Amino acid sequence: MYRAPIDSEILKIVLRLLPRHPEHIDAFIAYFSNYGRRRSIVKSALDYLESAVPYSYVRANFGISLLDSLERTRCAE
């Protein structure tokens, strides 16, 4: 995931794996950082953060990553 190319099929797979494999959150976040702010990633992130599933480490890392992505987008505008 850390060196995976930007690919819509890989992104779909990663988004499906996200809730099932929280132990790979660091690799998922690294892959999502390739995309900047994408609606599908933001929606999945918010859905995942609102669920009762994620561990505190996962919630923190995913929340920070999401906020960072949104802030970079806002600064670019």
Provide the low-confidence segments as ranges. Answer: none
- State the helix count: 4
Order of helices and strands: HHHH
Q: What's the Cα radius of gyration?
A: 12 Å
Distance from N terminus to C terminus (CA atoms, Å) equals 29 Å
DSSP strand content: under 5%
Oligomer: single chain
Number of strands: 0
- Helix % is 55-70%
Q: How many structural domains does the protein architecture include?
A: 1
Q: Sketch the major β-sheet.
A: none
Question: In one word, what is the shape?
Answer: globular
Rounded average pLDDT: 82
Q: Structural class of the helix and strand makeup?
A: mainly alpha
Q: How would you briefly describe this protein structure?
A:
The chain is built from four helices and no strands. The protein has helices at residues 8-17, 25-32, 39-50, 56-76. The mean pLDDT is 82.
Describe what you observe in this structure.
By secondary structure, this protein is mainly alpha-helical. The longest helix is centred in the last third of the chain and has 21 residues. The mean pLDDT is 82.
Question: What order do the helices and strands come in, and which of them pair?
Answer:
Elements: H1 8-17, H2 25-32, H3 39-50, H4 56-76
